[in-house]
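Request:
You are asked to prepare a plain-text protein record giving the amino acid sequence and the C-alpha cells, at your earliest convenience.
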Amino acid sequence: MIMTEIAAQLKHHPCCYCGSEGGNVMIRGGDLLEDLPGTFQFVECEGCKLLRQNPRLDWENLSNFYKPGYVCHTLQTTREQSKLQEFNLSLGPRKRVDLVQRNKPAGAWLDVGCGSGLVLQAAKKRGHWELSGVEPVKEMARYTSDNLNIPVFPSTFEEYPVQDNAFDVISMWDVLEHLAEPFNAIEKVSRLLKPDGVFAFSTPNLSALDRKIFRDSWLGYDLPRHLHLFPDELLRNSLKDNGLTVTNRFCFTGSYGTFFLDLKYWNKRKHSKIVDKILSKGPSGLGYRLLTFLPLRLVDWLKVGTNITYVARKNG
C-alpha cells in the first residue's frame, strides 16, 4: 500500500451520534504501532463533542492494519511457558474475569472482539459460564474456537445475529473504539442482554493524564484502528437511552502496557537513549516496573489512566 492508494480509500462520515457533518481537527498522524503508510486524523464533533476519525477507511481496507501479532492477538498461555511468562500474560485477563464474577457469578457470557481468547481462557478455567465470542479476524476466531472448544462468530459484531435476552454478560475489552457504529452496538448489546444482565467494557479515557503528556503520541488515538473516542457524559447518555445504568467506572488493568507503548511511540520522535534503555526489557522489565509502579497506581486511583472500564447493568 502506498500513500496515494490509502488516501483514495478514505471516506467521509458524519457523526454517528448526532449526525453533524462538521468537526474540528484534533490530531493528524500516521500508524505508530505498525508504521504502515497513510495519514489519518481525529475530529471533534461540533455538535456532541464525540471524537471520530474522519475521513476513514472501511473495514475491507482497515483490516490490512490488523497485522499478525496485533496486541489483542497474543496467543493463549501454555504449559511450555515459564511461570513468570504465564503470570504476566494471564494477569490482565484474570482481573477482567474477577470483575465480571463480582457482578454476575455465572451464566451465558459473550465476549465481543475476543481476539486470541485470553479472557475466555481465564473464564473457562473458573467453570461458571457458558462462553462464546465474536472476532472479525477470521484466523483469530478459528484459533480461539479450536483451542478452547467454544463457539466464536468469525465476523463483525454488526453482523452478529440478534437474539433478544440471550446473555447474562456481554464484554467488550478495548473494542468499542474500533467500531464503525458504536452506538448501534450499544443498542444491540441491550437487546442481547437479559434483564439485570451486565455489560462490561473498556475504552480509551479522554481524561487520561498521558493524553496530556504525550499528545500526538498517545496510545489512545491508535490511528487508523481507533475510529471513535467517547466523552464520559455522552457515553453514559447513550447507555441510559438503551436501558443500561452505569454502576461503576474505574481504571484497573493494562496501565503498564499502555504507558510502555506511550513511551515507545513518543521515543520514535525523541530518540532518547535513556528511554531506549528503560524500554529494552519490555513492559515486564524490572527497571520499568520499579519506576512506574507507584505513579501508575496513583494514576489509576485518580481515574486518569489511558483506559477506563465501565460496568453497566440492564434495567430489569
The mean pLDDT is 91. Residues 80-216+230-251+308-314 form a domain with the Rossmann fold fold (CATH 3.40.50.150).
